[in-house]
Design brief:
The complex is a heterotrimer of chains A (248), B (760) and C (217).
Chain A lengths: L2 E7 L8 E7 L8 H14 L21 E3 L2 E2 L21 E6 L7 E3 L2 E2 L2 H10 L20 H11 L6 H5 L6 H12 L2 H4 L2 H14 L10 H5 L7 H16 L1
Parallel strand pairs in A: 1-5
Antiparallel strand pairs in A: 1-2, 3-4, 3-5, 6-7
Helix pairs in contact in A: 2-7, 3-5, 5-7, 5-9, 7-9
Chain B lengths: L3 E7 L4 E15 L2 E16 L5 H28 L25 H11 L5 H4 L3 E5 L3 H13 L2 E5 L17 E2 L11 H11 L6 H20 L14 E2 L9 E2 L5 H18 L3 E4 L2 E9 L2 E9 L5 E5 L2 E4 L20 H8 L4 E2 L4 E7 L22 E5 L2 H9 L12 E2 L1 H5 L9 H16 L8 E4 L1 H15 L6 H27 L8 E10 L2 E2 L12 E3 L17 H21 L13 H18 L5 E2 H15 L6 H21 E2 L9 H25 L23 H4 L1 E6 L8 E6 L14
Chain C lengths: L1 H4 L1 H31 L1 H13 L1 H31 L16 H4 L1 H29 L8 H9 L3 H28 L7 H28 L1
Helix pairs in contact in C: 2-3, 2-4, 2-8, 2-9, 6-8, 8-9
Classes of the chains: A alpha+beta (248), B alpha+beta (760), C mainly alpha (217).
């Protein structure tokens, strides 16, 4: 199929960007979206145009590195997939596709479609861990039985890949789904309960400092999340936060 | 010091190199009198005519250092009574491989060793810097533990966050000899299975240590909040994996690697928050810096702004993973590369067993020329899925034309070839065996997709089996096929839901209704940088851990063992063994990055980068990578023969020459330039590929993932040659891959009887 | 204090003030509804509300504070939120993943605010004037007639109807959302959602019904 692509081009973080239009022909419906971008880049290089920079790595939907805003949606029109797993069969011949970077104040653009998501790392560094040393001299793994339902819920929260689709899609660029997924994972497990108060206070503080917006419960993040992280986690974090604030 | 003389030789660039000349009299060979001589060039230079006080000072320090080394060298040579033959000119690195396996019983080696090695006191650890390259399971866990112990750690990754390292994509699980299931598992059994699975080409002591610490890993991860799967009693659940007869694999649905990596990442985050780890995202290691023969730092390129930076440290740990991407199409991430390993190889680290590559049997088949990577379907699927192809070529033809559906083929017309050939292990034979069997069927014309390179992985019978079980539990009609199917699908979904979803997204077929199509793909590299028992490479102070080293998996890795090895190396082995080396460094002080060695390494890196940018060739980097991949897959892939390998060596060499002449790298050096980064990586693959083929050519036996067509039984099974090949091939770089020199580390099996591997 | 300074704290304050306003709305609605059934009862209750010192000097200021707080906070959050994405998207398909109501709380809020201006002008200002500025004599029976009088004009009724539709939209998202914000999201949430949805339809349309009822009479 033949497509028209409108792509955000920005040379570096300081320069002003703009949308550019490119044509691409003979796209196979079996291609992934990123493979289509590879083909486009090869085409641009033969024309002497700088190839489009975009982040990608594992291309199997788990590393969380790919990050495009396609036709007005994070990771494009398909559900529960990252851009690398979005396939061209979701588009029609003759379609015009707009491709933009994930936009948020806390995600400055590095070049073209690649953005800097290190704010997510800093939030994790503020408290996204359990403070035990890594000597292996802990108690036996089966010493504390954990309710299967809690373990499963903790797992579901822990499947967050940190791609930032929640921030990109949220009309307020809020990072609540991301932060709450980590807070939830640990607060559901007995190992994580010990420092739950400090964790939630520190992580939320860092989140606010990074310049993310406020949650207004639109639920867009949950819909666009490639891993289907539930809004329930945000409620849980709110709860934990209120409790922690009162406890002091 | 009588026999060693120090000689200086002027270089063109205003420096003099220092050579040690060991002279041990004369001997007569073929009637000619020849000196018995050994020459060693030291890796640092003097200023021929010092221009400043500083340069003079450097000269004095180096001369003193040279004297020290000379004295030491003489002592060793005299002690070891090395017999010198002929006019023997050798370089520094030319020593006997010493794997430093501790004395004692196999079971006690590790604990004895830990008890005896030198330690660095907590106060002194603060004075020592360690560089870790890579943030996968091995790199992240090593960084966290080193920082925890008190070292100053600098960690580097090329991704935008350490959490993205490709360990994250591991699906199935992690092995540990916990014996929670009470099915007769033990440390010994895990050790034995791993050696056997590795086709008796791994180092016994390392594997035993791995099996010993495996249980700690699970305890550690659970304490860190890794949400492993649990049963209704709240205890940890296990599943079974290929090549073993017990259930010892811990898992978190199909995302075990992700959960373990996020655990290690969280441990790292804690240390970053405490300021003990300094994290460098989007940085690529470009070279290692060696001073006085020791690893003392690295040169990196900041991938955002292209800046070339110097980083000094007292030790360098390479944890940058394997080299599967030399095949272009593999299950590795797009960015996975071998550059760090290859750069240290070129600076003196031996590269071991490069031809041992694992081809994973269950991947999604290639769909077309545009394909950029392959996606793995976890081996755990083989627990419940049955692999088959049609028995009749007529059916195959009809399927390819689309006139017949696989579900319409009757049971008696299906060939469950693994169950037929290997009744004991059936669908759970090790990966190399399963892969070759698939290739055998497809080569015979039974491949079930358009390209003829796919076999079926069928869950229909598992769905029925689970469905009946559930119907029985719930007191429903076990004969109602609709109910049974519905219940069965729920069970299968709860076990493999995310894998099935992934398959459906990529292939656009519903695997609950129609069998999956799978085909083998390159997945893991057992070979890697040669390391001793302490995980140190042949460059003093340079370590390699995780997939980057070669030590534990022999010629074939068992499923769920890569995660185990990465974490074992990172959490529990390296942080202790590195102390043995660093205990000599407590008085060294900070490493000066203004030393000429840093300057030289940086200049070389800059020259390479500039070379690519100013090349202005015609062909993109990917053209070369694709071509290399095709040569590798066709001639060094699932089965190899002498003719093909010789051709491969020649073709890769030609391709490499063409690459340097005609590659096109657009953009500038001082910006975010993906093509430039890729060019550097492909340049290294183009050398590594040749060594790979050379190694495969040298090893004329078949073992594990390495199948030489010349060496097989009449039934087509791999035929090992223990008499001639029970060794590790460790290659020394000598200026070009073709000139690489082979060193052999003999493998001794004290505890295990070397047997023919049979899964029949 | 950390509570109000943080993003979650602000949201909780928003949710709690919202729930408070919902309670007020319920009360207001119940009294207004009386006007449909019984003139005398309506007058009686209105008189109580208008002259009881607890209602007038404690509850009324709290209510005014609640209203002001909810609005001011709403604007503060909106400004902060729009700052968190400086370069806007060229294409943003909000409808693909979130309801119109949830994305446009600020607009429905502004409509309601404008309506409140009118409402204060219609009822509250004359009332305050009556009681505290001109200090006219107490009249227990004036309330119903004042009410009916206001709904004579069709323009005003139309404005009322439109405003209440917006209130409905605002409540539709806001009421349920406030539970999520204070941390209630569990297996009962489906029922909460049903209740809040019913509320956000019944109450505003009840108000509309009352307005039209009196207009047509």
């Amino acid at each position: 199929m033949n497509l028209t692509l409108k792509v955000w081009r920005q040379a570096n973080s300081e320069s002003k960007g703009k949308m550019e239009t490119y044509q691409i022909a003979d796209v196979s419906p079996d291609m992934s979206f990123l493979e289509m971008m590879d083909v486009l880049n090869e085409q641009l290089m033969t024309q002497g145009i700088d190839p489009i920079a975009f982040d990608h790595d594992c291309r199997e939907g788990i590393c969380g590195m790919c990050s495009m805003f396609i036709n007005g949606e994070a990771h494009g029109p398909d559900r529960l997939v990252t851009t690398c797993q979005l396939h061209m069969r979701k588009f029609k011949d003759g379609d015009t596709i707009t491709i933009e970077p994930f936009r948020a104040r806390a995600f400055p653009v590095i070049k073209d479609l690649a953005v800097d998501r290190s704010s997510f790392d800093r939030i994790q560094q503020a408290g996204g861990f359990i403070s035990i040393n890594t000597s292996g001299n802990t108690q036996d793994a089966n010493a504390i039985p954990i309710d299967k339902h809690d373990a499963d819920k903790a797992f579901d929260a822990a499947t967050c890949i940190g791609c930032g689709a929640c921030v990109a899609t949220c009309k307020n660029a809020s990072a609540m789904l991301f932060v709450s997924a980590k807070v939830s994972q640990y607060s559901l497990l007995p190992q994580g309960k010990v420092e739950a108060t400090d964790r939630v206070m520190n992580m939320v503080k860092q989140m606010d400092e990074e310049g993310f917006g406020n949650c207004t419960n639109t639920g867009a993040c949950e819909v666009e999340c490639p891993k289907g992280i539930s809004l329930e986690n945000i409620a849980r974090m709110n709860r934990e936060y209120l409790y922690a604030s009162v406890k002091g | 010091m009588k026999k060693v003389k120090i000689r200086y030789r002027k270089n063109a660039n205003g420096t003099s190199s220092i050579r040690l000349n060991f002279f041990d009299g004369y001997e007569t060979i073929d009637g000619k009198r020849k000196a018995k001589r050994l020459i060693k060039t030291l890796p640092f230079h003097l200023f021929t005519s010092p221009k400043s006080k500083k340069e003079e000072k450097i000269n004095i320090t180096y001369k003193k250092e040279a004297e020290k080394i000379a004295l030491q060298w003489e002592k060793t040579l005299l002690k070891e009574k090395i017999s010198l033959k002929g006019n023997n000119v050798t370089k520094l690195k030319d020593f006997q491989l010493n794997s430093k396996i501790p004395e004692g019983n196999l079971e006690q080696k590790w604990s004895n060793h830990k008890g005896k090695i030198n330690l660095v006191s907590p106060a002194n650890k603060r004075l020592i810097d360690v560089i870790v390259v890579g943030t996968g399971l091995a790199g992240a866990s090593a960084s966290a533990t080193l920082a925890e112990l008190g070292y100053n750690v600098k960690t580097f990754c090329f991704q935008d966050s350490p959490r993205r390292a490709h360990s994250i994509a591991a699906q199935g699980g992690i092995n540990a000899a916990k014996n929670y299931q009470g099915d007769g598992d033990s440390t010994y059994r895990l050790f034995y299975d791993t050696i056997k699975g590795g086709d008796y080409r791994s180092r016994e002591a390392n594997v035993h240590r791995l099996a010993e610490v495996s249980t700690n890993i699970i305890d550690q991860c659970v304490a860190q909040g890794v949400p492993f799967a649990r049963d209704y009693g709240g205890l940890l659940d296990n599943r079974s994996f290929g090549g073993v007869l017990v259930s010892r694999t811990f898992y978190a649905k199909g995302q075990t690697g992700q959960q373990l990596l996020l655990g290690a990442y969280s441990a790292m985050n804690r240390q970053i928050g405490r300021g003990k780890i300094k994290m460098f995202n989007r940085h690529e290691m470009m070279d290692i810096v060696i001073i006085d023969g020791k690893a003392r730092g690295i040169i990196t390129r900041n991938l955002v702004n292209g800046e070339i930076e110097r980083h000094g440290a007292h030790a360098v740990v390479i944890a940058s993973g394997g080299y599967g991407n030399v095949f272009f199409l593999s299950t590795n991430a797009m960015g996975s590369n071998a550059s760090a390993s290859w750069k240290i190889h070129k600076k003196g680290a031996y590269f071991a067993n490069p031809c041992f590559t694992q081809i994973h049997p269950t991947c999604i088949p290639v769909s077309g020329d545009h394909q950029s990577k392959l996606t793995l379907m976890s081996e755990s699927l083989r627990n419940d899925g049955r692999i088959w192809v049609p028995k009749n070529l007529g059916d195959v033809k009809a399927i390819r034309e689309g006139s017949l559906k696989p579900t319409e083929i009757k049971e008696e017309n299906r060939d469950y070839y693994l169950e037929r050939r290997y009744p004991a292990f059936g669908n759970l034979v090790p990966r190399d065996v399963a892969s070759r069997a698939a290739k055998e069927r497809c080569d015979a014309g039974f491949g079930v997709n358009k390209t003829g390179e796919a076999v079926y992985l069928d869950f229909a019978s598992a769905i029925i089996r689970y469905g009946k079980e559930q119907a029985h539990v719930k007191g429903l009609d076990e004969n109602n096929i609709q109910t049974v199917k519905k219940l069965g699908k729920q069970v299968v979904k709860s076990k493999y839901g995310n894998l099935f979803q992934m398959y459906e997204k990529i292939v656009d077929q519903n695997p609950y209704e129609t069998p999956m199509m799978i085909y083998p793909a390159v997945h893991y590299t057992m070979g890697g940088v040669w390391v001793d028992y302490n995980l140190m490479t042949t460059i003093p102070g340079c370590y390699a851990i995780g997939e980057a080293n070669f030590s534990d998996h022999g010629a074939n890795r068992l499923g769920a063992s890569a995660l185990m090895q990465g974490l074992a190396d990172g959490y529990f082995v390296l942080p202790y063994t590195i102390g043995d080396y660093l205990s000599d460094d407590i008085r060294t002080g900070p490493i000066d990055i203004k030393l000429p060695e840093f300057e030289k390494a940086e200049a070389a890196v800059k020259a390479q980068v500039e070379g690519f940018i100013s090349n202005h060739g015609k062909k993109p980097v990917d053209y070369y990578h694709r071509k290399l991949g095709k040569i590798m897959w066709d001639k060094c892939g699932m089965s190899r023969n002498e003719k093909g390998l010789i051709e491969a060596i020649k073709e890769i060499k030609e391709l490499r020459e063409d690459f340097y002449k005609n590659v096109n790298v657009p953009g500038k050096a001082n910006e975010f330039n993906e093509q430039l980064a890729k060019a550097g990586r492909v340049a290294d693959f183009l050398e590594l590929g040749e060594l790979f083929a050379k190694d495969a050519l040298e090893r004329t036996e078949s073992c594990g993932g390495h199948f030489r067509e010349e060496s097989q039984t009449p039934e087509g099974e791999a035929l090992r040659d223990d008499k001639n090949f029970t060794f590790v091939s460790a290659w020394e770089f000598k200026g070009a891959p073709s000139k690489a020199k082979l060193h052999k580390e003999e493998l001794k099996y004290e505890e295990i009887e070397v047997k023919t591997r049979s899964y029949k | 204090m950390t509570l109000v300074a943080s993003s979650i704290g602000r949201k909780v304050a928003m949710a709690l003030s919202g729930i408070f306003l919902v309670l007020f709305l319920t009360q207001h609605f119940s009294i207004n509804l009386l006007s449909v059934f019984s003139k005398s009862m309506f007058n009686q209750v209105s008189h109580f509300m208008g002259n009881n010192p607890v209602v007038q000097f404690i509850l009324q200021p709290i209510l005014i504070f609640g209203v002001l707080f909810h609005f001011v906070m709403g604007f503060v959050l909106e400004i902060k939120n729009s700052k968190s994405r400086k370069v806007k998207y060229f294409t943003y398909k909000g409808r693909a993943n979130a309801s119109w109501m949830s994305r446009n709380m600020i607009f429905s809020g502004i409509v309601i605010l404008s309506f409140l201006g009118l409402h204060f002008y219609d009822f509250w200002v004359p009332e305050m004037n009556y009681k505290y500025v001109e200090v006219l004599p107490l009249d227990q029976n004036r309330y119903f007639d004042e009410l009916v009088h206001k709904f004579v004009s069709p323009t005003r009724v139309i404005i009322y109807v439109i405003s209440f539709i917006f209130l409905s939209l605002h409540l539709f998202h806001g009421f349920a959302s406030s539970f999520q914000t204070v941390g209630v999201n569990n297996k009962y949430s489906v029922y909460i959602k049903k209740i809040t949805t019913t509320f956000s339809i019944v109450v505003p349309f009840g108000f509309i019904f009352i307005a039209i009822f009196h207009h047509l009479r």
